[in-house]
Design a protein that fits this description.
By secondary structure, the chain is of the alpha+beta class. The protein contains 9 helices and 4 strands; from the N terminus they run αββαααββααααα.
Length: 267
């Protein structure tokens, strides 16, 4: 007999969970901190039925709170005045004029972000989804990660919330969040090198390429649970056929090779 499990709209995380996150990213006026919240689901307009529907998700989410020091002083007043719209978000044009040092061109303020803002006074971005067997994954991949995945013939987006099985907050999550901090160092190295590629030496260039490859490797690891066996078999066979990368199909080019070609093309 199949039992119906009631949807849990609200779950309060234990204080120890937030304390563990604060140990990784301590609250600071000029630095981001992490916040854990329960994500029950989302409401969206379904064109197939012509109405708004509710999609249950029921996963723990890690949010990044943007420090007030990098926000425009006008941001709180504008967000408070606008509030969440019926469709679930604040209009972009109402935020773009007050983005200050934070680029909000691709951001909006949905109901969960609105609730977190009322609680903390800070703008929040969803950065980590706790699900699957390995402590979860990033909510969005960076540009460097997407480029590396594309060159490997892999999906450029991580699993969406609810796609993988439910997982608890445990040591696997903390280990992954430590990796998230390391990933930001790789991002910083990559971005700084790109801006001054012709001014840095061969050693620094190689460090940047290694950082970008590490970003792509990490993203591929996060995709592990959604890659089917055929994809894995094809990649293993191609790596065996082209061990040195000579004559390898475009989608199998190693990340460092792809990034080197990308940088040469930008010259």
């Amino acid at each position: 007999m199949r039992l119906a499990v009631p949807l849990r709209y609200h779950r309060k995380p234990p204080a120890a969970w937030q304390a563990a996150l604060d140990a990784i990213a301590p609250p600071h006026r000029q630095k981001s901190r992490l916040l854990i919240r329960w994500h029950a689901g989302r409401e969206f307009f379904d064109e197939t039925v012509g109405s708004r529907v509710w999609q249950p998700i029921e996963r723990w989410i890690i949010w990044e709170l943007i420090p007030s020091a990098v926000m425009s002083p006008r941001f709180p007043a504008v967000v408070k005045m606008a509030g969440p719209r019926i469709h679930g978000g604040v209009a972009l044009h109402e935020l773009q004029g007050v983005r200050g040092l934070l680029d909000l061109d691709r951001s909006s303020c949905d109901r969960e972000q609105w609730a977190i803002y009322l609680e903390t006074g800070q703008y929040a971005r969803m950065v980590w989804v706790i699900q699957g067997e390995h402590g979860g994954h990033q909510r969005h991949f960076s540009e460097w990660q997407r480029m590396g995945l594309s060159r490997r013939g892999l999906p450029e987006e991580p699993p969406y919330p609810g796609q993988l099985p439910y997982a608890p907050f445990d040591r696997r999550v903390l280990a992954q969040l430590e990796q998230l901090q390391q990933g930001r160092i790789w991002e910083s190295v990559s971005n700084q090198a790109e801006r001054a590629w012709h001014l840095i030496g061969a050693h620094e260039q190689q460090e940047a390429l290694s950082a970008r490859r590490a970003l792509a490797d990490w993203a591929e690891q996060q995709l592990g649970e959604v890659l089917d066996s055929s994809t894995r078999a094809e990649r293993a066979e191609l790596r065996e056929l082209y061990p040195a990368g000579v004559g390898r199909p475009d989608e199998m080019v190693d990340a460092d090779e792809a990034l080197a070609a990308y940088l040469e093309g930008a010259e």
